[in-house]
Every structure is written in structure tokens, then in C-alpha cells.
Amino acid sequence: MMTDPEFALLLARIQFAFTVSFHFMFPAFSIGLASYLAVLEGLWLKTKNDLYLDLYKYWRKIFAITFAMGVVSGIVMSYQFGTNWSVFSDKAGDVIGPLMAYEVLTAFFLEAGFLGVMLFGMDKVGKKLHYFATLMVAIGTFISAFWILSVNSWMQTPTGHEIDALGRFIPGESWTTIIFNPSFPYRLVHTVMAAYLTTAFVVGAVAAWHLLRDKMDLRARKMFSMAMWMAAIVAPLQIFAGDLHGLNSLEHQPAKVMAMEGHYDSHPNGAPLILFGIPNSEEKRVDYKIEIPKASSLILKHDLNAPLDGLDTIDDDKEPPVGIVFWSSRIMVAVGFAMLAIGMWSLFARFRKKLYEWTLLHRAALIMGPSGFVAVLAGWITTEVGRQPYTVYGLLTTADSASPLDAPAVAASLIAFVVVYFIMFGAGTLYILRLMNKSVTGDEKTAQSGPIRSAGITPASNRTITSHTGEAS
Q1: What does the alpha-carbon distance between residue 398 and residue 381 come to, in Å, rounded to a whole number?
Q2: What is the pLDDT of residue 8?
Q3: 322-351 and 371-385 helices cross at what angle (nearest 10)?
Q4: How far apart are CA 202 and CA 409, in angstroms?
Q5: How many CA atoms lie within 13 A of 87 on its CB side?
Q6: How would DSSP label each residue in 364-431?
Q7: Which in 127, 203, 292, 400 has the greatest CB count within 10 A?
Q8: What is the Cα–Cα distance from 237 to 142, expressed in whole angstroms?
Q9: On the CB side of 252, how many CA atoms lie within 13 Å of its CA?
């Protein structure tokens, strides 16, 4: 039976998990989308092809809404540091406070300063100046990710600090050691590439939706081609980066990796890779497991017979929740390999010159549209729940970080967040989906350019041809 303080702590954790999950989906999309817009405008300036301008204007509207929802959802989280996690803010504020301030002073001001020019200044400033504004917004989103991930990584692998007599973390001699803590480079690369893949699969899904309607849609073809190139190139790099990140976690946060692998027991002669199963923390085993002998040692140690410690080497009260971490990590990995499969499939279709005609590929790309968000959330859950029971790993527990609040007060605010978030962000997401449902429009000159014009096919006749061949949907 939970006591009131324990229940209040649980509700506070659920509230922060809920708000951060909503928030994280928007930056995961806007980081990649800002870079995509910069590429589109750069290609337009270089080639003078209005097709790229049409795509730029199309995705710029979606970016504006996504960016706005990301800002609003992020503001709410900062207040929770003072309401639900005031002890954590007091003890770690001297370290994380300046880093978050740097994010505001650099990234947010950079984004806000040039966002207006990017959204409304195309007809009011020169082309080069407008492109510069788009680049600054894209760079600003990356810098924002840099500082936020530095904060989170320090909480995962704290270095460069000292602890004063009151138990507060204070900066040491060098801020560089705090910023570039051991897990930060891996987490930054892994997260930013995840954002690019998230955007690629959203763009690919939108393009696939329009290709299913009209195989000869030039703008949909261009979107699909660019998205599939990103999937084919970045997905294998992301898997490699994820492997390096896992090895880093094994070194600095072994309990997290033990939970991910489902290793309740130590394996002195090589650990198996458990593909599926049901973690049973009461009995300290994985039930109904399907495993590959010694494969985990091969992946983590590059040696079939390398010993791996299990959760039996860690006190029960210091173990992360195994079931959540076990399954979230598998969802993340499964989605990653599905992305790789789509990328390789697109390369094969491109080689066969069927990238725009292969209906089954388009349907698969459409289904994979939300996959980036699923992978990002699964990865974030793995990272954050795997850090438990600590907020600052190994140094400050979650139970010692919470504010002294009553459970009814936290429950009331949690219910309010759930209601408001689903109404407000649900409406915003629905509007974005409506924008995506609309075809990319352009002037008559652009519409009759490229392969359609060279083939002597007019846009009006496209629908007749595609419907007769059975390729239209």
C-alpha cells in the first residue's frame, strides 16, 4: 500500500513523463524539418527550379505550427522544475541552470529572431537574406538540441562538478567537462539523427500518400525521392551510432543495459541475447524467453565468451524498472531495423527504376510515417526510465528530488494537463494532418515542367492514364 508521499511522487513522475513525451515529439520533427527547409530553399536558389520553392512553402506552414506547439509544450515543463521538483532544482540548479540559460540565449533567441523573416519575409527581403534566415532557424534548432541534451547527459553521466556542504552540485574548475560529459557526444549524434529520420519518414509518408493518388505528381516524386535517400543513408548510420551509445551506457550506466538485456543473472561464460520474453522482477527471470546463446556478449563485448554482469550484482532498490526498459528498447530497435528495411527497399526500387510506381513500397512508407515518433519516444523511455531510481545518476535519487506536495494537488494538475494537452495539441495535430492531405500546389509553369512535359503528357491526362493502369489509388 502506497503512502501519500509515495503516491504524490508517482503522480509527479507520471505528469513529467506525460508532458515531456508530448513535447519531445515536436522538436524531434522540427529539428529535421528546419534542415529540410534549408535544403529545399538552397536547391531552389541554385537550380532556379520552382518545384523546390513549392515544396518549401508547403512544409514551411507545417513547420510553423510544429515549432509553435513545441515552444508552448516546452514552457510547461520548465515550471514543473519549480512546482514538482523543487529539491532537484535547488540541488542541481547551479549546474543545469546556466546550461538551460545558454539554450535560451543562443538557440531560442536565434530561432525567434529569424523565424519571422523566414515565415513572412520572402517577398520583403532579398533571396539571400531570406535563405540566411532559414539557415539560422535550422542552426538554432540544432543548438537548442545541443544544450538540452548536454543537460540531460550530465544527469545521466555527471562529471565536472563538486558537491558542497549542503549537498548541492556546483560547477568545478571547467565547464567543458560538464558540457562534454561522457555520454553527451553519443546522445547528441543519436538524437539528432533520430530527428532527421523522423522528418524523413513523415515527408516520405506524405509523398507516398500523394503518389498513391497520382503517380505522376512531380512534387510528390521529389519529396519521396529525397526522403528515401535520407532513410537509406541515415538509418544504417543511426544503428551504428546506437550501438556505440549502448557500449557507452554499458561503461557508465551498467544497470540500464542489464535491464535492456533482461539479464537478471550474471553470465561468466557469455550472455545470451533475449529477443522476446516477459520480465518477471519478482522471480528475477524472463519468462517465455526466446534467446540467442552468447549473442549479447558478442554485441556488447565483441566476444562470444565475454562475461557480463547481471542485476544480481545490484541492490534491488537501485534497479531500474526492468519490464519498461526491456520492452521500450526492443520497440526502438525493431523500428530502427524497419526503417533500414524501407531504406534498402527504396534503393532496390530506385535501381529497378520503380521508385515512383511501386505501390506496395508507397503503402509501406505511408504506414511507416509515424515510426520516427515511436522510435524517439521508445528511446527516450529507455534512457529516462533506465536511469531510475536516480535523477542525477548514482548521486541524487528521484525520491529525494521531489517537492513536498500532497497527492491530490499533483493529481489535479495532472488531470488538467491531460485534458488541455489532448484538446490543444490534438487540434494542432489534426490541422497539420489536414495540411499534409492537401497536394503541393504550384504555378502552371512548374506543373508542366520536367518529365511530364517532356513525355508530352498534360496534367489533365495524367489521371486518365494512371487510372487505366491501375496505379492510382
Answers
A1: 16
A2: 86
A3: 150
A4: 38
A5: 15
A6: HHHHTTTHHHHHHHHHHHHHHHTTTTEEETTTEESTTTS----HHHHHHHHHHHHHHHHHHHHHHHHH
A7: 203
A8: 18
A9: 21
pLDDT for 31 beyond 80: yes
Is the peptide bond prior to 158 cis by the omega test (within 30 degrees of 0)? no
SS3 assignment for 290-339: EEECCHHHHHHHCCCCCCECCHHHCCHHHCCCHHHHHHHHHHHHHHHHHH
Residue 451 CA to chain centroid, in angstroms? Answer: 36
For position 457, what pLDDT does the model report?
34
d(C-alpha 323, C-alpha 327), whole Å: 6
Residue type at 251 in one-letter notation: E
Burial track 228-264 (b if 16+ CB lie within 10 A, e otherwise): bbbbbebbeebeebbeebbebbbebbbbbbbbbbbbb
Each residue's pLDDT tens digit, 79-129: 788 888 889 999 998 999 899 888 888 877 787 788 889 888 888 888 999
Q: What is the DSSP string of 230-242?
A: HHHHHHHHHHHHH
Residue with cell 531570406: 130
3-class secondary structure, 442: coil
pLDDT in tens, 433-448: 999 988 887 543 343 3
Q: Hey, what's the cell of 444? A: 502552371
Q: How far apart are CA 441 and CA 443, in angstroms?
A: 7
Please name every residue paired with 169 in a beta bridge, in sequence order, or none if there are none: 163
Whether 172 and 161 have beta carbons less than 8 Å apart is answered as yes
307 φ/ψ sector (left φ>0, alpha ψ -120 to 50, else beta) = beta
Within 10 angstroms of residue 192's Cβ, the number of other Cβ atoms is 21
pLDDT digits (tens, 9 = 90+) for 233-270: 999 999 999 999 999 999 999 999 999 999 999 999 88
- Residues in Cβ contact with 144 at an 8 Å cutoff, skipping those fewer than 6 apart: 27, 31, 103, 107, 108, 111
Instruction: Please spell the DSSP secondary structure of 191-250, one letter per residue.
Output: HHHHHHHHHHHHHHHHHHHHHHH-TT-HHHHHHHHHHHHHHHHHHHHHHHHHHHHHHHHH
Q: How many CB atoms lie within 10 A of CB 164?
A: 10
- Let me know: does 298 contact 342? Beta carbons within 8 Å: no
Determine the straight-line distance between the first and last CA of the chain, rounded to whole angstroms: 56
